Amino acid sequence: MQDFSALDGAILIDKPAGPTSHDVVDLIRREFRIKKVGHCGTLDPNATGLLVIVLGRGTKLSEKLMGDDKVYEGTMKFGETTNSYDSDGEILETKPVPPLTVAELNTLAETYVGDQMQMPPMVSAIKMNGVPLYKLARKGIEVEREPRLIHIYTYRFTDYAAPFGRFRVACTKGTYVRSLAHDLGQKIGCGAHLTELRRAVSGKFDVADAIPLEDVVKLSQAELEQRVIPFLTLSAA
Q1: How many alpha carbons fall within 13 Å on the CB side of residue 81?
Q2: Can you spell out the DSSP letters for 112-148?
Q3: How far apart are CA 52 and CA 233, in angstroms?
Q4: In whole angstroms, what is the distance from residue 69 CA to residue 237 CA?
Q5: What is the pLDDT of residues 139-171, one digit of tens each?
Q6: Where does CATH 3.30.2350.10 sit in the chain?
Q7: Which residues of 173-186 are buried (b: 16+ CB within 10 A; e: fewer)?
Q8: N or C: which end of the chain has fewer CB within 10 A?
Q9: Taking a C-beta distance cutoff of 8 angstroms, is the pair 64, 38 a contact?
Q10: Residue 52, burial from CB neighbour count under 10 angstroms (0-12, 13-18, 19+)
Q11: How many Cβ atoms from other residues are within 10 Å of residue 194's Cβ?
Q12: Topology classification of domain 9-67+204-236
């Protein structure tokens, strides 16, 4: 039977807004001198929440864990369309927002539940001929993208205070939640973009069990080992 160290597995990080997912990986690698560190599903810099960080031999399970379904909570602003579909982008269009209610938004959101082909935004890390799309977007270049098959399990609004709507969505990997915000705004006719996003769940893991990034760097090696989900537990997840 293969022997595993206490650092072969994964830790659950609650990522703050600001750092990229790769920044978090580099921080863990540097602070704890672990050679192999990876993450299971990118969060945009301004997105917060659950980031599953794999360590040591746990990196062998990154593809498996990356394929898990996700749950997100977020806020979108109606009346403004941006080129990135979120608040990081440039505002392209502003339109009046019609009267909306949570019930009306949920009726519209329900139409997205199920299988659908989703067009990735230009401002994304998807590569075209080896070049990330966001680099082309910065140069003002827009190229044709291949739509991707995704599945939305649930999509519900929990609050609406014009022009902001709070929502929760459960979906398959590879779903661009900011594209959902953009598409809903187009359907309503006033435009919309994502202003906040938080990953609450990834597979069997919940952000409630994650440790804030600022607290991770305060841990000793022994304390970090106590937070690690062992390789064998991960492989059975």
Answers
A1: 17
A2: T-EEEEEPPPSSSS-EETTEEHHHHHHTT-------E
A3: 14
A4: 13
A5: 776 777 788 999 999 999 999 999 999 999 999
A6: 9-67+204-236, 70-201
A7: bbbbbbbbbbbbbe
A8: N
A9: no
A10: buried
A11: 29
A12: Pseudouridine synthase (3.30.2350)
Average pLDDT, integer, range 100-128: 89
- The neighbouring-strand residues paired with 167 are 74, 157
Structure tokens at 162: 């014009």
Distance between CA atoms of residues 71 and 196, nearest Å: 14
Query: What amino acid is encoded at 186 in this protein?
Result: Q
List, in order, residues 6 or more apart from 137 with CB less than 8 Å away. Answer: 83, 84, 122, 123
215 catalytically annotated: no
The answer to which of 19-33, 115-129, 150-164, 188-202 has the lowest mean pLDDT is 115-129
In the set 3, 44, 88, 183, the catalytic residue is 44
Region 77-102: mean pLDDT is 95
pLDDT tens digits, residue range 65-84?
999 999 999 999 999 999 88
Question: Cα–Cα distance between 30 and 33 in angstroms, integer?
Answer: 5
